[in-house]
Write a structure and sequence with these properties.
26% of the residues lie in helices and 40% in strands. The protein is α+β, with helices and mostly antiparallel strands. The chain has a single domain, classed as Nucleoside Triphosphate Pyrophosphohydrolase. The strands form three sheets. A four-stranded mixed beta sheet has the order 6-3-8-7, with helices on both faces.
Length: 178
């Protein structure tokens, strides 16, 4: 992460404006979906806010090449959840979003991966504390978001994008829950 004090002249001004900008590696977030249509989330301790949050798996990407982004998806899925993509799996790109555009250029690419299957035990990196890995139905996930149990921006953005694009609909997942 690099912090800069920049002086710029925005298109709507005639005088320079000073702004503190944080330049950060970009990331990726994946919504892993099991063969029975459940969403896989991790409950992870987050030191800056001193809380544990339910989140979709995510991670920073070391290089901007598309192959590296997908490799990061595979790595984070295995490390954080102990799952992997099934042989017939599909990875669906769902765009990207800016996490806090008022002070950083950080952005995260959004994906859905279906189906995912267990591959062994999760092996988080040394600075990650994954407390729990669990699957949730569409209705459980929706309810957790509505009740402010999910407060992670990555997860909220990815869920919103899946709904907005029609990748998931309440009707399609209600049938699988029966």
């Amino acid at each position: 992460m690099d912090v800069f004090q920049e002086k710029i002249i925005p298109p709507t001004r005639s005088t320079p404006l000073e702004w503190t900008v944080v330049r950060r590696k970009f990331g990726m977030v994946v919504a892993p979906i099991t063969p029975d249509g459940r969403f896989l989330l991790v409950r992870q301790e987050r030191i800056p806010i001193r809380m544990a949050l339910w989140e979709f798996p995510a991670g920073q990407v070391e290089d901007s090449h598309p192959d590296t982004i997908i490799a990061t998806l595979h790595r984070e899925l295995r490390e954080e959840t102990g799952y992997e993509l099934a042989p017939n799996a599909t990875i669906t790109p769902l765009g990207y979003f800016f996490s806090s555009q008022g002070f950083t250029d950080e952005h995260a690419y959004l994906f859905a991966a279906t189906p995912v299957i267990p591959s062994g035990q999760a092996r988080p990196e040394y600075d990650e504390t994954i407390l729990e890995v669990k699957t949730f139905s569409m209705e459980e996930l929706r309810s957790m978001i509505a009740n402010n149990e999910i407060r992670d921006g990555n997860t909220l953005a990815l869920f919103a994008r899946m709904i907005a694009t029609g990748f998931i609909t309440p009707e399609s997942y209600a049938e699988k829950a029966l």
